[in-house]
Amino acid sequence: MWIKTGLATLAGVAGGALLAVLLVFGPFELGGTAVGPWKTNLLIGDPAASPAVRAAIARRGLLALNRSETVYFNATSDDSGQGLREDCSYRVSFDQQPDTRWWSLTLYAEDDFLAVNGDSAHSITAEHAAASAANSIDIAVAASRPERPAHWMSSRHAGNFALTLRLYQPDPAISDDPVQAILPRIERLSCEGES
């Protein structure tokens, strides 16, 4: 009897955790939407969010501002749908700057924290892009710094990582409908062991 109770409890906890993650970042779940590999949930920071959504957001440690202040996008795969991995290199390309007052792109390791690697290359912000003469920006995401690109985010010791794009004080059209945002492409360039 104790074994059945333990298994039922374990199944309930695992199912609840999965449901919570899907509620927050799932593209088709309650309030969720996707733009290519980028997912968001319209209920993040919304006072009308259900207790389940609020709990899921708190569980991830996201201190979310309301949608008029910040829109959050999360990607765990590249444009072709393959998961983001430490042993691969990527190019994240903004064709134009997001229509927002300020933005940041941050790489989070598999444990949802910044990768512990000593590279001090966890994030790229609007200030980095402002230093570029063009309105577009390319960012290398790899375990080691490439020779050419000026912008680099380190995936060393990140495992299967995620990218989080925050749009602070976005254009009201994006706050109302985040699908309107022009988001960067995530292109896989190569992976270790592949020819």
Structure in words:
The protein has 195 residues and is of the alpha+beta class. It contains four helices and ten strands; from the N terminus they run H-E-E-H-E-E-E-E-H-E-E-E-H-E. It has helices at residues 2-25, 51-59, 126-130, 172-176, and strands spanning 32-35, 38-41, 70-75, 88-94, 100-108, 123-125, 137-142, 152-154, 162-170, 185-191. The chain has a four-stranded antiparallel sheet. It has a four-stranded mixed sheet with strand order 8-7-4-10, with no helix packed on it. Helix 1 packs across helix 2 (51-59). Mean pLDDT is 81; it is low at 11-29.
Mean pLDDT: 81
Q: What proportion of the residues is helical, as a percent range? A: 10-25%
Order of helices and strands: HEEHEEEEHEEEHE
**Oligomeric category:** single chain
Q: Tell me the number of strands.
A: 10
Rg from Cα: 18 Å
Strand numbers in spatial order across the main sheet: 3-9-5-6
The general outline is globular
Instruction: State the separation between the terminal residues, measured CA to CA.
Output: 53 Å
Secondary structural class = alpha+beta
Low-confidence stretches: 11-29
Largest beta-sheet details: 4 strands, antiparallel
